[in-house]
Structures are given as C-alpha cells and as structure tokens.
Amino acid sequence: MFDIVIKGGSMYTPGGVIVGDIGVIDGIIADVQEGGGLDGDKVIDAVGKCVFPGFIDPHVHIHLPFMGTNAIDDHESASKAALVGGTTTIIEMICPGPEDEPANSFAEWKGLAEEGCCCDFSFHLAVVRFDDLAKEQLRDLVANEGVQSFKIFLAYKGALDMNDENLFKLMQLCNELGVTLTAHCENAEAVDSMQKKLLAEGKTGPEWHEPSRPRSVEADGVNHLCSFAELTGATIYIVHTSCGMAVDRAIEARGRGVDVTVESVAPHLVLDKTYAQRPGFEGAKFVMSPPLRDKVEHDALWRGLASGAVTTIGTDHAPFNFNGQKDMGTDAFTLIPNGIPSIQERVDLIHTHGVCTRKIEMQTMVDVCSTNVAKQFNMYPQKGAIAVGSDADIVVYDSNFVGTFKHEDGLSKIDYSGFEGMERKGRSDVVLLRGKVVAEQGEFVGEAGAGLYISR
Ligand code: URP
Ligand code: ZN
Ligand code: ZN
User: Fold this and answer.
1) Where residue 161 falls among pLDDT bands split at 50, 70, 90?
2) Sheet of 120-126, strand order
3) Pocket residues for ligand 1 (CB within 6 Å)?
4) Which domains does the chain have, with CATH numbers?
C-alpha cells in the first residue's frame, strides 16, 4: 500500500511515455507501473492528463538588490507562484554587491530562502568581488555548502561586471573546483556607449532600451565568453539567450570543442520588442536585458530548442512594480529596473506557444523545463525524473485547459502581468512536492516555508 497513488495518467518517464500509476512512499517515488494496478491511502485521478516530473526553473531572482531598488517578491510569494505553475524547484541567483563577501551573501540568501521558500531551492552564486578572500570563500562554499555553479555578468558596467583579467582567473578556478560558470553575456562597454549616445540624442523612452543593446552586443558577449572558455577549458552556461545570432556564436564554439550550454527564458520566446514600444511608458513593463527582440527571433529560439542547440528554458523572474519601481526610469530608460517576471506562467507559456503550435514536442518541453536542468546542475535523478527513487515532485497537467493569463491569478507580489489577456492553453492541475500536494488548479494548498535546500 502506497501513501499516494497517481492513477492512469500519461507519464513522461526517462524510458518514454507510458500510461499507468505512480506509487509514492515517504515523499519518494516507490513504483511506476505501466497499465496501473497500484493502491494507495490517497488516490489522485490522472486519467486523460499528462504526468510530468516537477519543473525546475534554472534562473530566478527573488532577493535582488538591483538598479537602486529591490525586486518586489519574497521567497514565499515567488515560490507559491512557482508551485501553482508546476515548478517545484528553483535555482536562484545570489547577486552580491562588489564589496560583499561571498560567504556572507550565501548565508544571507540561504537564510531568507529557508525562512520562506515553499518549493525546493538551490543557488548559482554570482562572483562580483574577486580578491584573495573571495577566492578562499568560494573554494569553501563549493567544498562545504554544495555550491556547483557560479554566475558572472558581462553587463551592467560599474555595478556587477567583471574585467577580463578576473574572468580568466575565475574560469581557471572553476576548472579547479569542477564548477559550471553561468553568464549573462553582453558587451558592457558597448552598451554603456550606446546608452550615452541615445540619451544625448534625447532618446529617453523604454523603446530605446533594445537599440541600446542590439543583437550584435549580445553575440559579442557570447563570443567573448566562449573564447575565454576555449582558452581555459571552463564549462560555461549562457543564460537568457535572446536571439539566433547569439545562439549561433555558442554553437560555433561548441563545434570547436567548447563545453557550452545555452538557456533561453520564457519572455524571449513569447514577447517581442513592440511591447517595449507601447505608449505612455507602458513599455517599461517589458524592459529586461538582453532586451525583447524582433518577432523573427522567436522562431530562431524555438528552432534551437527543437534541434538541441538550446537545452533549457528558465524565466529570469525579476519582478519590479510598474508603479514605484519601473517609473524610476521615466526620464531615462537606463534607470528602469530590468526584469519581466514569469515564474508562474513559464510552463503554460511554453505549452501554449511551443507545444500547441507544434514548434516543439511535449517531450522537449519536459526536457528543457525539467530533466535537462536537473542533469546540467547535478540534481538528476533526485529531481527531473518520474523514476523509482526520485523525489515525488510530480505535476498532473491538463493539456486541454483553455483560459487567459490574468494578473489577478498571479501569486507574485508584482503589480502587473507581462502576459495580461494572452491566450493560455494548459494548466498544472495537481502539483506534488516530495509527495505532498502543494497546488491544485491554480491555488496554493501547501505549507509556507516547507522548501528544502538542494545541495549539489
Ligand atoms: O533584465 C534582467 N535580466 N533582469 C535581471 C537581472 C539579470 O540580468 O538577469
Ligand atoms: Zn542577466
Ligand atoms: Zn537573471
């Protein structure tokens, strides 16, 4: 007898899609039976539904002091939003300032997540300070705290960016420690020059954000990072890739033997730069970096996902209110806090715009939003699989659900939705985290602060 049985769904297992039952004991998947026949104290009917491994978001910001303000979510609100959207594990970016010690920052972020996070969580640790003390602490965090990935910003000149001397040395340290280097790739100097030029010409509105950091700026950043990885042998992961030109630079480097993985994020697959051109400063809601591009880039990214050039989809959830935060940039687009949140909407956006339009297969959605992330970041098969022995993080998904994305349905604290009024196909009907039902049909029914740190 199992604690819970999930009955009769189409289960996406590592061996393929099979119809049958999952038995859960003590939060772990104890049996996966094709054809069914399992009994449990509690039975969840999944007939006619898809049954997926819990989705994993490889790129979120929750505690984020950035551009003179703080992102508006806390761990409780962001993780509730994640769970109702089918995401059971998040990897948050720890983003310290240039003076902060990595050990203190890790403790600060972990403490906040342990207090409030309702889903499981892990971290990428941004390296901004890189002196001897920082290096020593980075070594210690990898050895003793299960940190397995660092993050750098080739962007945000004067705030978070890193010079080439330190980039080279950091990559050598990554090799020594067996750590993946995740990176925001743009040419920070070029962005700075373009911003100054546009502002001097009186081009101050949100619609000028994209022209200040065009595709070539991003492709140059990717190329730069890949060149350094080629020289050092570092393993790199490029976050929020927004356009075909940037993907191409990474794939060329892969052809030269560089160990490079490419991530895209939901806003770049669904929204285009015309959103940032909306009148009356409305466009500020759609300012993120790299920026939203021409619609044609969506196809380049979907093709990349279908071919395996792009292997993960995150959100880059970075919520800043329209009123009181985005409007810090009414006089200059350079002062608009960057970010378009989608931690709740990600899976349904990918289902609606990728699977339902036949740009990618359902299996690809599962891979890029769950399994590949777990494999890439050392969480597999604890996470990312419907398999005996894996955590019972399970999503019963209604792929026939039809609705509309609405801000009023969101559990994030953000005061707008970037997807307001857009058609929505699909919904996570029942979400289990380690064998406990935590979300049902868009409502959070779990326990606040029940998320666990995933040491990698
Ligand atoms: O616009 C973005 N992406 N905001 C969050 C910070 C970052 O660059 O990831
Ligand atoms: Zn970034
Ligand atoms: Zn980010």
Assistant:
1) confident
2) 55-60, 87-94, 120-126, 149-154, 180-185, 236-238, 260-265, 312-314
3) 61, 184, 240, 288-289, 316, 318, 338-339
4) 2-52+389-444 (2.30.40.10), 55-376 (3.20.20.140)
User: Which residue's CA is the closest to the ligand 1 atom numbered 8?
Assistant: 289
List pLDDT tens digits, range 202-226: 999 999 999 999 999 999 999 999 9
> Residue 61 has what pLDDT?
98
How far, in Å, from the CA of 71 to the mean position of ligand 1? 11
**Ligand 1 nearest-atom number relative to CA 95:** 6
CA of 318 to the centre of ligand 1 (A): 7
